[in-house]
Prior knowledge:
Elements: H1 2-10, H2 16-28, E1 46-47, E2 53-57, H3 65-68, H4 76-87, E3 108-112, H5 125-141, E4 147-151, H6 153-166, E5 168-169, E6 181-186, E7 190-197, H7 202-205, H8 212-226
Parallel strand pairs: 2-3, 2-4, 4-7
Antiparallel strand pairs: 1-3, 5-6, 6-7
Amino acid sequence: MLAAIEKRVTGCRRCPELRAYCAEVGRVKKRAFSDHEYWAKPVPGWGDPRARVVLVGLAPGAHGSNRTGRVFTGDGSGEWLYRALHRAGFANRPEAVHRDDGLALHDVFITAAVRCAPPANKPTPEQRARCLPYLREELVALDRARVIVTLGKIADDTVHGVVKERGRYVTPRAPFGHLAETRVELPPAGPMTIVASYHPSRQNTNTGVLTEPMLDAVFERAHALLGD
């Protein structure tokens, strides 16, 4: 089922304006990547199909995932995220460079609220709504999920949108904040906990809004919720 979703995502044309933007970024390129062939298509989720932890980010970076074709790969946000996943035992290595770099995830699946790189990293409400069905389908396919980590408020709002459509709240929704938790029931997986985290963007990591110990605490909490 995840393979079928991946195929639909990479072939998606629901937002012509985003497809045009991603293609233009891939044509012009960034000087540092002038010799790279950009992916320049919608970016699917990836990871362990039997994952109990699902990470949901915002959207591909114009010169990160839009270039490499794998979420959180090839930019500063990914450097922070995969180092933390490796420290927590969810990844076999701390670096994410390109799709065939040997990186493997254990018990984690990573996806995003929006699958195309948006200008200024700000997708419109309409673009978010068009992408929502893909996340909904992934959460159905990932029927062993017990923890959803939302990286940033847009990801958090998107996941809670799925809960409102398909599930129910066991505890009231927690206001977005780092390590905020909400317990939900979301079929077919059943009981799970949504754990919010600040996004590992350069804007947050360069200013100290998010530190490595803070990000480590998110995955330590995920392990605790899994009973590891």
